[in-house]
Amino acid sequence: MLVEPSHPGNVGAAARALKTMGFSRLVVVAPKIAFVTREPEAIAMASGADDVLASAQVVETLADALTGVHWSIALTARSREYGPPQMAPRAAAEKACEFVGQGHGGNSGAIALVFGNERVGLSNADVERCSALAHIPANPAYSSLNLAQAVQVLAYELRLALLSRADATAAIPAPTSPTISAPSASSDEIEGMYAHLEQALITLDFLDPANPKKLMSRLRRLFSRSGLEHEEVNILRGIAKHILLKIKR
Ligand code: SAH
Prior knowledge:
Layout: E1 2-3, H1 8-20, E2 27-29, H2 40-46, H3 50-54, E3 57-59, H4 62-65, E4 71-75, E5 86-87, H5 89-102, E6 111-114, H6 124-128, E7 132-134, H7 147-171, H8 187-203, H9 215-226, H10 230-248
Parallel strand pairs: 1-2, 2-3, 4-6, 4-7, 5-7
Helix pairs in contact: 1-2, 1-7, 5-7, 8-10
The chain binds S-adenosyl-L-homocysteine (SAH).
């Protein structure tokens, strides 16, 4: 997923980076140029990946893009004060593989790599929507890669992780993921929970909407460390619902 990309050439090059690594789903969030996927520069840079470019989905918000996604990695060139747990790209790719193996209809929509705008990167709010944060350990004196090149690095890591997983499954039949058992919550379920929780905390006068400080960011960081399951999100929403009901009475 490319959030607010500015340069059509980068969108095309990202499509090529994905296709060379065996992926086909590109999502563009609020591009700076409408119909960016039809720009001549994008088509030229996509080269033989023009099919991936042409079938790219364009959506308005990252929330829309992450609907149905169960595990997402925010790629950032800068470190962030808040946000989900940081992982090395390789470890993040391996973890992403576990989610692909877990099912969710077996489609690649279960996981997402999220990249920011060429000039400003991802906003803190967008980073906080993701399950993990990853930074390519580049030259500390110049660590900002070109957007499509960052896509290439992560797509390659994901391919390596998927290939080694395929080897492992060939050697040992029927290994369901040992690390993940209960169904994970999707991004939209988790966002719905935060909205519900925030409403309950405001009603309790615990959260002052005029002066929210970093409460919700801290709660997001806490929960993103835990790897929320579908059922756990339901429990938290149940608590929020009962707080709201009790206070209304
Ligand atoms: N000046 C921006 C960098 C934008 S580069 C900033 O300070 O955030 C465009 C995008 O490429 C970034 O948002 C990120 O998704 C990706 N990217 C570039 N370099 C990266 C790195 N070293 N590690 C992880 N992602 C990187």
